[in-house]
Amino acid sequence: QKLKKGLSKTREEMGVKINTVLGAYVKIDDDLLEDLEDVLISADIGMTTTMTLIDNLRETIIQNKVNDPSQVMPLLKEEIKKAMNPSLNAEIETASPTVILVIGVNGVGKTTTIGKLAARLKGEGKSVIIAAADTFRAAAIDQLKTWGSRAGVDVIHHQEGADPAAVIYDGIQAAKSRRSDILICDTAGRLHNKANLMKELEKINRVIGRDFPQAHRETLLVLDATTGQNALSQAKTFNEVSEITGIVLTKLDGTAKGGVIIALQSELNLPVKLVGVGEGVDDLQKFNIDDYVDAIIE
Ligand code: GDP
């Protein structure tokens, strides 16, 4: 329900407009498909994915000898679900012990996501520790401490400017000695300096691999849905500097650009695992392709 509510603007941008197009035609022709294409592109699905979708839809329409525009919607929904690579695993790793590395540029909702995730996992009965390794911003450390104390989760931190890998190292020692289930690590997200970012993430990954080899791994990239196609290009860049196992798309509430999820899963083959639909602690939802497509297109 929360997902559906969060996606209401995207539904207006996409589902409602698709229905308007379909209602304006008496038979299926190239003009109708072109109008559909325009709707999908303006709904932030991206050029590449839209082209593939429309080509596949045209094929299906021909194969099934469909003439009536009112029959297009279920076919389009199926094509969208197929384009999203349903085999992608949307579950986040929580076997004990797991290190969840959280990456993404500043302002996308990284800190908030870590707070919500820590509270959710704690609520599921897991013991959780947060390592505040975004040492670039003092505010990030303070914010995590606030989220941590609210959720009853310890936050391992150093001073602003400290070596992020050293914070992660301390986090690992704490997680090992307390036999914690999950260690969530914040990181700094300075995308404008790709070489530095890559070096920092490599160093962090090296420390985890060396000192916590038994841990399961999850690397979540946090993206801001309100930035639409820019989120897609951020994902491409981060995908070059680090191995990503899942995406968290924040701020879906209040944006019409929720169609970008289709592009993320289709173009980059990365599973969206969680979505943010508000600022509250309960506003982090598990993602599921069927629920999503049903919510944006009715
Ligand atoms: P960071 O710089 O990436 O750590 O970003 P923050 O976690 O500080 O979040 C930036 C702003 O976005 C804050 O005001 C958050 O409350 C807000 N925010 C984060 N996630 C969501 C979300 O899912 N929905 C909404 N509406 N706001 C969010």
TrEMBL record:
Its main location: membrane. It is a peripheral membrane protein. It is an enzyme of class 3 (hydrolase). Its EC number is 3.6.5.4. GTP binds at residues 104-111, 186-190, 250-253. Residues 271-284 form the SRP54-type proteins GTP-binding domain. It is found in: Cell membrane; Cytoplasm. It catalyses: GTP + H2O = GDP + phosphate + H(+). This is Signal recognition particle receptor FtsY. Keywords: Cell membrane, Cytoplasm, GTP-binding, Hydrolase, Membrane, Nucleotide-binding, Receptor. Part of the signal recognition particle protein translocation system, which is composed of SRP and FtsY. Belongs to the GTP-binding SRP family. FtsY subfamily.
